[in-house]
Amino acid sequence: MFLSEIILQSAEAALQLQLTDGSFPPGCNGPYRDPETSARNTAHWLITMLKAYEISNESRFKDSAWMAVLYLNSPSVRPMNATFFCRTNPEKDFCNGLVGQAWIIEALTIASMKLEDHKYIELAEKIFMLHPFNDKAGLWRRVNVDGSYNCFDMAFNHQLWFAAAGSMLNDVSYNPIKAMIVRFLDCVLESHLSIDTSGRIIHQIVKPVPTLSRPRKIYNLLRSSFRRHNKADYRESDWLTNKEVGYHAFNMYAFSMLKQYIPEHPLWQSTKFMLTLQYLNKEEFISGLENNLYGYTYNLSGFEVAFTIQEFRSILSFSKSEQWWVDQQLQRCYDIDSKMLNRATEDKETLSARLYEATRLKDIEVSSF
After folding, report:
1. Which of 144, 264, 290, 327 is at 20 to 30 A from 124, Cα to Cα?
2. What is the DSSP string of 87-142?
3. What is the pLDDT of residues 294-353, one digit of tens each?
4. 3-360: which CATH topology?
5. What is the C-alpha separation between 250 and 239, in angstroms, rounded?
6. pLDDT at 173 over 80
């Protein structure tokens, strides 16, 4: 069986889940247990439906994609005509930081190109440009669903994925977006990308930036110092280490998207970035994904590493093949009966929808079945 067949079968099964308004069932953001709206999973399934149409040329997949993109363009998803309404936890922002917006920008951009309707990429660009970028800090701020500005999103993967989503706008957009992304990557090289001695990416951006408030600067300095000087104590926080292991491939997937966009950036040849690539070969990473709440059963690490290998094999030899990583993902999570990635997870709806990450992979034969 080939990966394209898995994608096709899952898309076929998902057709039965789509509601008349074009939406797909919401999840709970995996281990975070945050009730979500349908926006995120609909964006993910939109990409998969377009891939299924590309594979099969069967109109029902294209029809489903049209319904999904119309839903994402509806008032219920942007109730205050600003950012997308992604989650409903009253203790957190409703936009799901930068990453919630990035996922929908990504889907709208692909849909606009595949469905040949420019208005969806115009919407994606509008949402991207709503987010203030501080050139000195090299970071974007969050924007609430009512359009008000929030603080910098200090989760590294959120900033990274927002940049990756923005990179997809380049062919039909204008230079200021590329300028922002280049500046962000410059800052990633200089400071934003923090790694453990093993090469594992630190989850938070820990170096203070000039525009942060004094209390936030003090917090980040203490956090950074704690990581540098109290490694034994830090490793007692197994949940944080596990989280960073589980997110490592998710970060590398976004890096791979950015590599396609700006292949000449010096980041890719830097010692720091090479360490993050080499971490994918380490037993700490490979075994650390076992029973990891943020790994295969949430972030689809198998597909993410496979895509990273696809993009970076010219500068590093990897210990495992793309096929090995794809098989690891499918063996753990793909259910033959339902034709969905819904096994061994707390959030079947979201994991199934995240199959879309496989749509960037070259078609390969899988040995799982």
Report:
1. 264
2. B--TTS-TT-HHHHHHHHHHHHHHHHHHHT-HHHHHHHHHHHHHS-EETTTTEEEE
3. 999 999 999 999 999 999 999 999 999 999 999 999 999 999 999 999 999 989 999 999
4. Glycosyltransferase (1.50.10)
5. 17
6. no
